[in-house]
Amino acid sequence: MKSRLFWKILPGFLIAVILILYSVWTAIVLTSDDYLSSERESARIVATYQLSAAQLAIESGGIAKFKELSQSWEAQDSDPRSGRNYWNRLSVVETKRVIDSEEATNGRRDFVVVYAIDPESKKWAVRYKLPPDTPPESWSITDAFPSILTIEWVIPGLLGGLLFSAILVWYVNRPIQRLRNGFRKLAEGQLSTRLGPAMGRRRDEIADLANDFDRMAERLQQLVLARDQLLHDVSHELRSPLARLNLAVVLAGQDAAAPRAPLQRIESEVERLDGLVGELLSLSRGESDESERDDYFDMRALVDAVVDDATFEAQYRGVSMVARIEPEQHTLMQGSAKLVRRAIENIIRNAIQFSAQGDAVEVSLSVDGELNQVMLLIADRGPGVPEADLLRMQEPFVRLQNGLDRQGYGLGLAIASRAVQCHKGALVAANRAGGGLVVTVTLPLMNMVLHVADCIVEKEE
Ligand SMILES: Nc1ncnc2c1ncn2[C@@H]1O[C@H](COP(=O)(O)OP(=O)(O)O)[C@@H](O)[C@H]1O
Ligand SMILES: [Mg+2]
């Protein structure tokens, strides 16, 4: 079992079991009469047995039979605790009269006496001398304990411990795994992730945690949607004054008396602003039409087309394009072909822009039948990106040091990553061994039901 929790719980559990066994054992031993009885009590048991046997022997076979019997007792060992022998304490004398035992002891608690009449009618008194009445010796717990640490106990104990720990870990680990998946998905940008339903009827701290997670995800989703909405609205509002400005510039240009240079400058700035607003609108995905949201398209053909287009730009920069498109048959996807195309274009264009003359940009598309997804890899041999910035560069308006001198607003990757997320896919950037960047896009294939419309901000009007 790969679980780390398991290996933490198992030793704790075993130690707890051993401690419990130890204290139960100690409690039993300390309260049991057997262990605490004095020596005299132990001797009395032997006495009762020996005296009644002696009485029987004398009554049936006379003193000769008694002697025979007492010889067999002499072979008995001493008591291991006290070192005293309880078996050789009998003495026998002939007596004139027979009295009952109560009277015979007559306050002398050191003896137990029985009387017997042999077949020849002689009377005998058999006396057992009790040992001194000492309290039990102090006794150490460790004397008794090791006796249960035998193989018969240890192996089932260990197996039980393993089983119990495995069940416990399974019970705790399963929801933790679900929580982990939830956090991972949320971190990947799937803000619609909710954990409540996965917890079922669970009502404990873990379920509370899942509920808190859901509240957090809900809030994040609202914030992101609000931001998108704002971005969309602002960009949208900027469009009309920009259009009017453009028109004004064109009209002013027709006036021969107007100064050329400033007008040209204004024109190019307006163009740039218009481009930015266009990108912003793409980022908030407000531009995609209702009809495009539920397109069906072939990923293989789409990548083919984007690579074809990019080859021109690449040739112009002296960069070669190497495409490896594995799938033989159609790779049907559902969603917005326009968004996905835009995403792939942005990534490929970055790869070309950051390549030096003579470098190659590699594009490869493959299908993972098991996970039912397509995987697109776009790799270059450019400068790569510092590890710490790999995630950050996907944020809007982030341009790293290596991108500052180029055209662009730092929106390309943000748009790409949004578009991929809308299709329940993932975009991951990593540095390549030997230099350069590789961007991996995974997208689910057709039969994963998609709701791209869910994350597209509704366009008013
Ligand atoms: N293939 C790449 N190699 C190195 N750096 C890259 C690559 N792609 C993107 N980057 C870095 O990530 C930043 C963000 O990229 P992007 O969102 O496309 O914005 P832009 O292209 O407008 O600068 C870039 O400015 C650049 O610093
Ligand atoms: Mg770019």
From TrEMBL:
Entry EC no(s): 2.7.13.3
This protein's UniProt keywords: ATP-binding, Cell membrane, Kinase, Membrane, Nucleotide-binding, Phosphoprotein, Transferase, Transmembrane, Transmembrane helix
Annotated organism of origin: Cupriavidus necator (Alcaligenes eutrophus)
UniProt signal peptide: none
Regions that span the bilayer: 153-172
Protein name: histidine kinase
Taxonomic path: Bacteria, Pseudomonadati, Pseudomonadota, Betaproteobacteria, Burkholderiales
Chief place of localization: membrane
GO molecular function, one term: ATP binding
Pfam family of the protein (one): HAMP
